[in-house]
Amino acid sequence: MKTRYTGKTIAEAVATGLQALNKQPEQVEYQVIVTPKKGFLGIGRRDAVITMTVKEEPTPTPKPEPTPAPDPAKVATPEAGPTQASVEPPVSSARQQRDQAFRELGYYLADITKQMGITTTINVTPGSHVVRYDFTTPTEGLLIGKHGKVINSLQLLAQVFLDKHLRHHVRVELNVADYRQRRAETLERLAKRVARNAIAQGESQYLDPMPSFERKVIHGALAHNDHVKTYSRGREPYRSVVVEPVHR
């Protein structure tokens, strides 16, 4: 059964569909029905519309009939020898599996950006705990989106994809034109400004919802400010930071 989902971008619509169906990217198929359009001054703007279908589960192969155990009396007993310990997969094999997952994720991201009409090249920087994908494109603003909504939606999809393909968690970070660094600097300035307002007004300040890695920037920027405390409230994807003055 096909179900329609909308979003300001195709990636956002896909992320909405995956959350609603509680499925992984490789478990669904989607088709773009309406491509998004910015419009002029808000006039003529339209959201992306996709249809998403859950792939059918493959029919399980019947298990073969168990072979009867041989008669112990007719089986020669081998000479006793050293016990064989279970062999762990070599480190190189685990690294190859990780690198293969990184490559497949790169192809996955390239396919999504192509469907979005964005021409880009992707440079991958692998690591044990973090893997970074840096995009180079002439349409940086289109890939980033307003307040980073497009690149953040893509990063969410990428994280879901990689978590499905690796046994150990590796954090995914997508970046274009040093957006992450510039965004972190903007968030740090925002945190300090909001903290000043909280102290001056003596009231808690509520920030707009943001992803967890951006909330961490806010918390970190004010961690050593003795005049305010910060905490997050709400549920994803609407979880936000509250900056509260400390009354002494």
What does this molecule look like?
- It is a single chain.
- α1 crosses α4 (149-165), α2 packs antiparallel against α4 and α5 (179-201) packs across α6.
- With 248 residues, this protein is α+β, with helices and mostly antiparallel strands.
- It has a three-stranded antiparallel sheet. Strands 4-5-6 form a three-stranded mixed sheet.
- The protein is globular and about 65 Å long.
- The chain has six helices and nine strands, in the order βαββαββααβαβαββ.
- The N and C termini lie far apart (59 Å).
- A hairpin with a 6-residue loop joins β8 and β9 (240-245).
- The longest helix has 25 residues, at 91-115.
Features:
alpha+beta; three-stranded mixed β-sheet; globular; 248 residues
Helix content: 25-40%
Element pattern in H and E:
EHEEHEEHHEHEHEE
How many strand units? 9
Enumerate how many helices there are, as a single number. 6
Global shape? globular
Strand residues, percent: 15-25%
Through-space gap between termini: 59 Å
Layout of secondary structure:
Layout: E1 3-7, H1 10-21, E2 28-34, E3 48-54, H2 91-115, E4 121-125, E5 130-136, H3 140-144, H4 149-165, E6 171-176, H5 179-201, E7 205-206, H6 212-221, E8 228-233, E9 240-245
Parallel strand pairs: 5-6
Antiparallel strand pairs: 1-3, 2-3, 4-5, 7-9, 8-9
